[in-house]
Design brief:
By secondary structure, this protein is mainly β. The protein has two helices and seven strands.
Length: 98
């Protein structure tokens, strides 16, 4: 099971991860916000994206990171969005090599 050994901020302000498989990845806040998997952003039945990307500020910031058990993190953003739970495997896919 993929899990982060370390979560950090990069010099560029990205959210970074050091994973238990030895890899390191990072992602900017806006990319994470646009990929939010919550029911407000993605239709639970169809999987259709509901989030209008134009409503997310280009300079959106990550405000809070909360561990959700052993499988995910909850992320809060400066645009007021706080309901996204990001499973570690989704985060690993979203992030690129750091």
């Amino acid at each position: 099971m993929i899990q982060p050994k370390k979560v950090f901020r990069t010099k560029e302000g990205k959210l970074g991860f050091e994973w238990n498989d030895g890899s390191r990845t990072a992602c900017d806040a806006r990319t994470l916000r646009l990929a939010c998997p919550c029911a407000l952003c993605v239709d639970e039945h169809t999987g259709e994206k509901l989030l209008d990307e134009s409503t997310v500020p280009l300079d959106v910031k990550l405000e809070h990171i909360q561990s959700i058990g052993r499988y995910a993190v909850g992320l809060s953003f400066s645009d007021g969005h706080r309901s996204g739970i990001y499973p570690y495997d989704k985060l690993k896919e979203l992030t690129k090599s750091a």
